[in-house]
Amino acid sequence: MITKYLNKTVKAAPLAVFRILFGSMMFLSIVRFWSKGWVEELYINPKFYFSYYGFDFVKPLGQWTYVLFVICALSAITVALGYKYRFSIITFFLSFTYIELIDKTTYLNHYYFVSVLSFLMIFLPAHAYFSVDTLTRKELRVENIPRWTIDSVKLLLAIVYFYAGLAKINSDWLLHAQPLKMWLRVKTDFPILGNIFHYEWLHYAFSWFGMLYDVLIIFFLINKKTRNIAYVFVVVFHLLTRMLFPIGMFPYIMILATLIFFDSAFHEKIILLLKRIFSYLGLPKKKISSPSKNTNYTTHKIVYPVVLIFFTIQLLLPWRYLSYPGELFWTEEGYRFSWRVMLIEKVGLATFTIVNPKTEKRFEIRNNDFLTSNQIKQMSTQPDFMLQYAHKLRDHYKTEGIENPEVYVDCYVTLNGRISQAFIDPNINLANVKESFAHKKWILPFHGTIKGI
Asked: For residue 146, which of 298, 318, 317, 32 has the smallest C-alpha distance?
């Protein structure tokens, strides 16, 4: 049965269109990021960077960061064109992922999505049809590709949507409309709907619709009878979230990515339109088309286990939070890389104190002497950030002449509108705590209940 499925073929047009749209959107995203001055603000100006555990070897590059962004942008263009595709998509994956690993302060679910999607695309024949590569390598020109290559992209999108929906099945989101209630109340200047955003019924309507949309949308996209109306919901949902919240290019990426659920005839029309545009520009129309119609793409055997392992990780990784005690939204242990999108609003105030064990003198730290305002905001609610920052302070004050400085933090956090409560044990010397994947016992218990998946 598995062998039969792996041998099934489909038209290559949907994957070719997906490649073009993905590369184009990534290029525009990078240009937008650069134009807003975020390269300098986020990757050059900070004095300290919060690295991911296990990826300490990823270092900031200073002014060379601009070169890295240029490489990332150029590789996005060549991916879209299908030029030296395999090299281009590998280069894009490595450069984009390196940028995101520099500082986890910038972590967003859609950045992670781009990284995992670009990794998957390394193993897909997205250049086998309507690409520059097929102009010079006739053996690549095929009309049919394995069905699983397109299904794998659909599966990844399904994981993102479905897991995001499951995460919304919790008491804060469904029974208290939090944190949407807090966010929508301040959107009084929003066109048309702004006048009713203070009504509680609307907060619940948005919360329940968001959950149902994420859980069910894939099933409606898969079904040919409901696909068109489902796509209308995709467009409306993502445009609305883009207007309401500052989430960058992600809504547009998802709107275009979900086009892959449409059949090959739809994508052939898009390619025909592109051919006409190219012909108007004076490009050689004949050379860009004409695959060898009787030729199917052959998948290298090594690809199957790699893709299988990839999806096994994607399916299991979001559930790792179950291995940790305590409330996930409070500790955030296992929160990242699990498609938990916009579920919490946390505000914290963290005061760090340095103690000289020899003299017993103590003094408080001004966090803005070491961190940017965005880093302070992230650090003040996330324990792994606090531990890294404490180690940074320890190492800094060692160079200032304090032998074995002790670092303590007095931190209070409010979660989804609740009363602020103590977050970290103020009696723990974080300078001596080692980072690991183990549960951080120095996180104080959450005084509340959030039920859900």
From this structure: 298
